[in-house]
Amino acid sequence: MSQSESSADSWQRFVDAHAVGGVLDATVVEIVAFGAFLEVAPGVHGLWHRAEWQEGSTGPEVGVTMPVRVLAIDAERHRVSLAAA
To answer: Which of 5, 11, 12, 20 has CA atoms 20 to 30 A from the CA of 56?
Structure first.
């Protein structure tokens, strides 16, 4: 199985198992200027946009696992929007 097939399978499993409004545990994998990327499932990352952080918060730390709420899923573009749960 190629890397892209594996990624597509991971995304499909995520979409099949989760819905907007659902809560799941995710691990922070990268902090960027506009937010943080969290791994919500093996091979699937979602964005917790800085606009969703509490006012005055410095945000999460890489490696921290935390509960998040799914705000939106765009399966075609392989994007998940997250907020703290």
So the answer is: 20
Whether the model pTM is above 0.85: yes
Domain that holds residue 33: 3-84
Distance CA 27, CA 83 (A): 13
Overall domain count for the chain: 1
CATH code at 15?
2.40.50.140
- What are residue 83's phi and psi, to 5 degrees? -145, 160
- The per-residue pLDDT for 14 is 94
Q: What's the half-sphere exposure (Cβ side, CA atoms, 13 Å) at 53?
A: 17
CA distance 34 to 16: 28
